Fold this sequence. Notes:
Radius of gyration: 27 Å
Distance between the termini: 51 Å
Order of helices and strands: HHHHHH
Mean pLDDT: 85
Number of domains: 2
Number of helices: 6
Shape: rod-shaped
Largest sheet: none
Strand content: under 5%
Helix content: 55-70%
Amino acid sequence: MEHSNATAAEKAILGFLQSKEEISSSGDFALSIGIDHDVIVNAIKSLHGILIESNLWVLDIKKERWVLADEGNSYAIAGSPEVQFFLAVPPEGISHEGLQFMVELC
Length: 106
């Protein structure tokens, strides 16, 4: 972490806390002031270590976000390959060669 970024982050945090009671989300705070989130997190930890006897409380809250990959999105829309295969078989049945032909078209 660059010293100037760390210093700017610490100053921003302390300045914010002069008029507000808390920083509810370090991620949102980082976005609002244009400083990398990791720099903000490290600055909070550093300030907590320095101001351990003050009334500064730090809660470590981890958030995860899961998203589907492109393949997962296609399965969500069209179904898994097994479901697509099952749906390709008409109610009256189909020959092995006919099914192979249909699968090759897809």
